TrEMBL record:
Pfam families: GmrSD_C. The lineage of its organism: Bacteria, Bacillati, Actinomycetota, Actinomycetes, Pseudonocardiales. Residues 38-62 are annotated as: Disordered. Residues 128-227 form the GmrSD restriction endonucleases C-terminal domain. It comes from Amycolatopsis marina. This is GmrSD restriction endonucleases C-terminal domain-containing protein.
Amino acid sequence: MKGVWVKKRKTWVSTLVLVAVVVAALVWQADELLGPADSAASPTPPVPAGSGPPGIPDGDTAKSHLAELAVAPDGSMAGYDREKFPHWSSQGDNCNTREVVLERDGTDVKAGENCAPTSGTWYSAYDGATWSDPADLDIDHVVPLAAAWRSGASGWTDDRRGDFANDLDGPQLIAVTDNVNQEKGDKSPDQWKPPSVSYWCTYASMWVTVKHKWELTISDMEQTALTSMLGRC
């Protein structure tokens, strides 16, 4: 009987080893087929409270708006001048547009009598940096004034361009690290993207929303870049 028991035990162990080998092979095969998780499909991490402009749509809405934008080559920069986009305008209570955005996008912001912030913290979604000195921040026009000029704003009145440059109702203005904003300049998404890849979906949604609201055109390369960025949503 002892010999029979040993034989059965060996058979049982062999069966377990065979099952383990088969399972390992199936797991390896699945990994080969599926590949590593695609970071592009990962959800955008939550942005800290107190930061970010209003009116940012979800990815599907942004994709729909992108499809509705007119595609055309960029226009001439002839006649462009930032002074043709008057900013920062008064928003009441001794505050101008820049100061309103700093208060909106910051956390625990305190301001003096002239509305200029004296303390607070600001999270720059473009690069993931946090600042406590408002001098380290620029208010970025998501669609730069020069980019707007090239895509339709050259034909607007100064009043309309002023409304565009001070638009607090949509995602056109955001407080970000100053040197990051200066690196961006007047570049469109095919030429510049935020250093934080996780913010690309949001940034593209903001850009598309602004151009859709103000009926501005996009170039072929701009459209391609935005389509790719919205693919991360």
